[in-house]
Amino acid sequence: MGQPVNDTSPIEQDLVREVDVTGDGKADKITLHLSAKNLNSPMLWTLSIVADGKEIYFYKSDDSRMDHLFSDKGYVLGCNDYISCKKKYYYHDILDVLVLTGTKWYNLYGILDKSQPGTLYPIGRKELSTCCNVVGSQADAILNKIEKKFRDGKVIAINVLQSPVHANPPLIFIPEVGRFIRFDEE
Fold first, then answer.
1. Domains of the chain: total
2. Domain end: 43, 70, 96, which one?
């Protein structure tokens, strides 16, 4: 992905990927916008997801608070110095770990355990109620569909990084309400 020509060049750049994150079989447009005075400066970035011409997700980050950590050994894996670690994180890692598919990233029985408070049904019910006023049997019908996707290994989620060592809770798109919701608490 096109990195800046040199470490002192201003950065104002969009990295775009097209991948299905809504589960409808059509590619959605994911745009990571990077902005900084140069690679030696803190990065400001936004992540947006557009499906069928409508923005369905937006996240904004000002990484000033963590910029100095890119020179710490082990903060970003697979790099050796401040500049190479920043390039790896912003130009690869954020988008490389964004979309979660398959079954290796979740514990099926942990997510579906209805007796635990931080799992699909309690979290999903709370999220659907709070965001969209969807409650009761309507919420359970939506969550039953999600459960089936988990059981069939066909769930698609997004995993938005807050830093190289921490991510926001994963989110899943709910077509019935046109937005992403949390479904798990770590």
1. 2
2. 96
- The edge-to-edge listing of strands for the beta sheet with 54-62 is 11-19, 28-36, 44-51, 54-62
Cα(128)–Cα(102) distance, integer angstroms: 24
**Domain final residue pick, 49, 70, 96:** 96
Q: What is the pTM of this model?
A: 0.91
Q: pLDDT tens across 58-107, in order?
A: 999 999 999 999 999 999 999 999 999 999 999 999 999 999 999 999 99
Q: In sequence order, which residues have a C-beta less than 8 Å from that of residue 141 and are 6 or more positions away? A: none
* Distance (Å, whole) CA 112 – CA 151: 9
- CA angle centred on 150, ends 160 and 165, rounded to 5°: 25
